[in-house]
Amino acid sequence: MRVELCGDPQLALNRLSEQAFDVLVADCNHESAAIELIAYARNNSPNNAAAVIALVDSRNDVREIFAQGANFVLYKPVSAERAATSLQAARTLIGNERRSKRRVQADANAAIAYANIENIPVKLVDLSEEGIAILSKQKLPVRSKVYFQFVLPGNASVARLSGEVMWQDTSGRVGIRFADVPTTSRRLISEWLDKNGKQPELTLSLSSNQANTGNLNKANLAAGLSLLAVSAGDRRNRSRRACCIGVEVYRFGHTIPHRCTLTDVSIGGCYVESSEPFPSGIPVEVVIRINEQKLKLEGKVTSTHPGFGMGVQFTQRTQSQKDQVQQLLAYQSAPPKLSLEKI
Q1: What is the per-residue pLDDT across 225-281, written as a single tens digit (0 to 9) for each?
Q2: DSSP three-state, residue 215
Q3: Parallel, antiparallel, or unpaired: how do β-strands 309-314 and 293-305 relate?
Q4: Which residues of 142-179 are buried (b: 16+ CB within 10 A; e: fewer)?
Q5: pLDDT digits 0-9 by tens, 61-83
Q6: Which domains are delineated in the chain?
Q7: Which residues contact 135 (CB under 8 A, 6 or more apart)?
Q8: Cα(104)–Cα(59) distance, rounded to whole angstroms?
């Protein structure tokens, strides 16, 4: 890995405008200059996708450094052992930062909830179609399911969805991988990303500002920050197919319909978008009209996300029940793509 040391802030800015680097290491001894450097890299091609490491001490405003686009920080004095420990969970960034989904900086307030705790205020850092980074003053359990809502800058509509906490560092920065995203929220995010995002141009090299490159090379700089693989609990063994189907959901044995939207389906179950989902364990009947047919799929609520929706596991005790699930999958897969009227 080629290293270029640049001790003059203005010269560093000039180099960032001329050359693309994979990693930018900014020594925050002169915090204002380091923040300017990080912000410039994040807002200007060809370095808006570079991994940014900030070297900090107790005097630095770490939250502001993260807000300007740093991926993570190393506290000085930097030792090989400390750096290796800090970067262990992020060792694939430089190779894997070439994400299939672009990241876009987002500056907005949000509220999250998990377990029995609600309305925790957090701040958005960046956003993609697959995940989000936030700043939180409260420690969030890794691998926990969180539910959050936010309004993106320049947008009036509220996005509501759930995700899984993948990592959290000592500064309060949290990486969340999306789990269940209602259709309306996914549309809001996609449209906002299309409007505000820039396609990254990714290349390989290294730049630093007043960094001790000899020590940092020993600390294994071929590492970084990326969302980890989804937990085993979210690795479905059934292929899910996205859809948008108007359905009626009934508590089993009841006659009052709840009009909802089916957002994905598999041979084993489905996800129903609803602002008032049923509690887990409740048996339900999902009624879907396809052309002239009326399918009645029985199942049980296995997961519920207040304000978002619920996951339903199909009950397939009889051949008739199995046949109806197969009919839905066959129709959904057939061209043209499934497009059903609301019931």
Answers
A1: 222 223 333 334 445 666 778 889 999 888 888 988 887 788 888 888 887 889 889
A2: helix
A3: antiparallel
A4: eeebbbbbbebeebeeebbbbbbbbbbbebbbbbbbbb
A5: 887 888 888 877 888 888 777 67
A6: 4-98+200-218 (3.40.50.2300), 104-198 (2.40.10.220), 241-333 (2.40.10.220)
A7: 63, 66, 67, 122, 123, 125, 171, 172, 173, 174
A8: 29
